Predict the structure.
Amino acid sequence: MAMGKLKIGIIGMGGIANYHIWGIENSPDAELYAICDVNEKALAERGETLGIPPERRYSRHEDILADSEVDAVMIGTPNMNHFAVALDAIRFGKPFALEKPIALDTKEALVLREELAGKPVPHIVCFSYRYRGAVRYARELIESGKLGEIRHVYSQYLQGWAISEEVPLYWRFSKELSGSGALGDLGSHILDLHRFLVGETTSVVGHGDTIVRERDKLDGSGKGEVDVDDFCHVLGRMENGISSSMQISRFAYGRGNYQRIEVYGSKGSLVYNLEAEDTLEANFEDEEGDFRFLDVPESYKSDQMQAFFDLLKGKDDGLNATIEDGYINQRTIDAIIESFSEGRWVSAQ
Ligand SMILES: NC(=O)c1ccc[n+]([C@@H]2O[C@H](COP(=O)([O-])OP(=O)(O)OC[C@H]3O[C@@H](n4cnc5c(N)ncnc54)[C@H](O)[C@@H]3O)[C@@H](O)[C@H]2O)c1
């Protein structure tokens, strides 16, 4: 790998690419070297704005992966081609950061897992909330035993952007393009955080449904069906007798990116709220009083993109999500989808 700055390529120049670009621009270790998008217009416009010369703007992901100058890629395409692009990255031996969920279903996720087992390639999966200082601090407090035996984890991840029926039939509303709806989009983060904080989910039962069932197709050819969940509510049985719940919705009026996790143990409780992420709310048996706010120490704060660059430079704190984590996440998502239609508990293992 190059001795100077890491030359990073971005595949998928849509919304999440802005975050990828920000991370590259704010790191002393990386530079944006090449970009890729199937949308020629987006590619040209982004290329101009970012100052990427035409010969380093690719419309096929295979070509950016084949560019030997590119040290690593960020894969931020819609869910339907995470599998194909990540599989090719592994086959090209190109280090990658892959957006969540890692695939459309467990079958695809399993292939990625098996391919990597035969040919390891440095990579992370972008379960971005693992990098929040409050989450890392909570994890450490839980691991240290400060909360005693964990009993419950109650989570919410709420957005409100889909309420308007004017919102068109984006890929996020299609099972074929997205795998699931709010579940894979938002719930995947919560399922990962439950594992990151307290442990494995062993079985699930959920209710998910669609509120707006038809939306305008993007090509103007009339209405198309929304065939994924707009919201879901899921109960989980976890290892060590822990019981969890999560409430996930794109129809929570007024909510932009509301994420909250409450962890209750035998000797203490913690509340993480993304909107107040420099603090945790806590109540511990060995301290006087009611709930109080703890400041999150600076040392727990981290950055996903910098963590990826650190990994590429040989520094791994062991807290990055991998394809293995993405596979387990996908398996749980598929179990939840099965329980939506079957109306019963389904094993997530
Ligand atoms: N980690 C997070 O918190 C987080 C947040 C938002 C989005 N995401 C994930 O990022 C991914 C993209 O979401 P988005 O909101 O940026 O979508 P988007 O629709 O805004 O952008 C996707 C871009 O990928 C391009 N694209 C499609 N197929 C391609 C291909 N085969 N090769 C190259 N480019 C291709 C599209 O033309 C588009 O420009 C999703 O998987 C989503 O789940 C993650």
Observations:
- Residues 11-16, 36-39, 42, 61, 76-79, 81, 99-100, 126, 128, 185 surround nicotinamide-adenine-dinucleotide (CB under 6 Å).
- The domain at 129-300+321-347 is CATH 3.30.360.10 (Dihydrodipicolinate Reductase; domain 2).
- The radius of gyration is 21 Å.
- Residues 183 and 232 are 7 Å apart (CA to CA).
